[in-house]
Design goal:
21 helices; 459 residues; 8 strands
Length: 459
């Protein structure tokens, strides 16, 4: 059996360890080697990379994608898309989703992994359709979690729904690294008995279970797994590519990766990692094993956010209380999987409940929107008392919220005028208006400086 490996160092690995602070210039020289290593795909875009490029790296995310594609013509590029949320934290109209997918493919994307935080697949249907329309692979995604309502039967039903939607593969997304080896085997087996499309597994090393989980998933028939080159592996990142390759070969699997290329990639990223350790961007804490996630189901990024939030309010000593409150809030909200944006919403509400000293005395506007049905169907029953407290006599919306949103792309394009140099600029602005404005201004300022320097040299 052949096992395929997706390399995550250009996206999720550095997002998990260094908050996506990896500029293109830091990795451009290794791209040709990554391209010939033999990976199934290179995950290099989507998730937080888009926001980070504009907000912190002063890079055009679209240009970054084009450059990666130019340097890696032989390997599929892959991105993570939050369905109707695209790469932001709210739902966007269908015309914006369609445009974003279209331009993602036109700029070089080959595989779009599409998920909805609640596994409400009405919120990924448009993105899946558009991905297939433009000739890319749509990887329909199940956000994995455990709860009384997340049973094998429920997951198998999700898999069938995704297959009927026409997805190219089905990815199980274990964002907190809480899936154990038996759960992986049973879930993959249930999906293989239900659907015919290939199964992909994504997990993190957060709890230390990843290698066992991957091996049992593969034993059950999983065809593709996500790994990170060893210098950027472990902790809240993925399991090490080279270690996984070594183990799989010993067990008789084919992997098709070039060991010499993998060593070259790892040697390249070692000093990059050391630089981020020295400047404090990479906190050694995120490289450790954190088994608390098995109890609280809190992904690494969510834990980092909680710590930062409590530090800002001089309340870090109350972290254990917040961790204990988090699963209670999740239960009240109908057991949503803790993945963006639900992880942030649940975490912030749990912290608020603890710090205020009264549960739900203050409710965030995002949680109110969730209770109104604006993010989709809750997986389980939402606490009736909480609904009554927040919504009063208002009934939650049960339809697909995007159906209530008016088309936006052409309207924003007209409003931006010359400030947007391309349709891609318009999409950047729609996703992150204030940040995009600053980026456009910075881009113009740099051009003016370059022109002035050129004129001075000619004179």
């Amino acid at each position: 059996m052949r096992v395929h490996i997706t390399e995550t160092v250009l996206r999720d690995a550095n997002q998990s360890l260094i908050a996506t602070r990896l500029p293109f210039e830091k990795f451009k020289d290794i791209l040709p080697v990554l391209d010939r290593a033999g990976y199934y795909s290179l995950e290099c875009w989507g998730g937080a990379t888009f926001d980070s490029c504009l907000r912190y790296l002063d890079e055009d995310p679209w240009e970054r994608l084009r450059k990666i594609k130019e340097a890696c013509p032989n390997t599929k590029l892959q991105m993570l898309l939050r369905g109707q949320n695209i790469l932001g934290y709210k739902h966007y109209p269908d015309d914006v989703v369609r445009k974003f997918v279209e331009y993602s493919v036109k700029n070089g994307m080959d595989i779009i992994r599409i998920f909805d935080a609640l596994n409400d697949f009405r919120n990924i249907k448009v993105a899946v359709e558009e991905t297939l329309k433009w000739g890319a692979m749509a990887s329909g995604t199940i956000s994995y979690t455990t709860s009384p309502v997340h049973t094998l039967e429920a997951y198998a039903k999700m898999g069938k729904e995704l297959e009927e939607m026409g997805v190219s593969t089905i990815c199980i997304k274990d964002m907190a690294g809480i899936m154990g080896p038996k759960e992986a085997y049973d879930l993959v087996k249930a999906l293989k008995e239900t659907v015919k499309v290939p199964i992909v597994l994504h997990t993190h090393s957060t709890t230390g279970l990843a290698p066992m989980t991957y091996l049992k998933a593969i034993e059950a028939g999983c065809e593709v797994i996500d790994c990170a080159i060893s210098s950027f592996s472990g902790g809240t990142s993925q399991y090490a590519t080279e270690s996984m390759v070594y183990a799989l070969r010993q067990l008789g699997y084919e992997v098709g990766l070039d060991d010499a290329a993998l060593k070259e990639v790892n040697d390249f990223f070692k000093p990059v990692k050391n630089e981020y350790l020295e400047n404090g961007t990479l906190n050694p804490f995120v490289l450790t094993t954190n088994t608390d996630a098995l109890n609280y189901q809190i992904p690494g990024g969510m834990l980092s956010n909680l710590i930062a939030q409590l530090k800002a309010q001089n309340s870090l000593d109350r972290l254990d209380e917040v961790l204990a409150e988090t699963p209670r809030v999740r239960k009240d909200l109908g057991y949503p999987p803790l993945v963006t944006p639900m992880s942030q919403m649940v975490g912030v509400q749990a912290a608020t409940n603890v710090l205020v000293g009264e549960r739900y005395k203050n409710v965030s506007k995002e949680v109110k929107s969730y209770l109104r049905g604006e993010y989709g169907r809750a997986p389980g029953e939402v606490d009736p008392e909480l609904l009554a407290k927040v919504l009063g006599d208002e009934k939650p919306y049960t339809g697909r919220f995007a159906d209530t949103l008016a088309p936006e792309f052409e309207k924003v394009k007209a409003e931006l005028g010359d400030r947007a140099e391309s349709d891609e600029d318009v999409l950047s602005y729609i996703a992150f208006p204030q940040i995009a404005e600053k980026f456009f201004a910075s881009r113009e300022e740099k051009r003016n400086r370059t022109m002035q320097y050129t004129v001075e040299r000619i004179d």
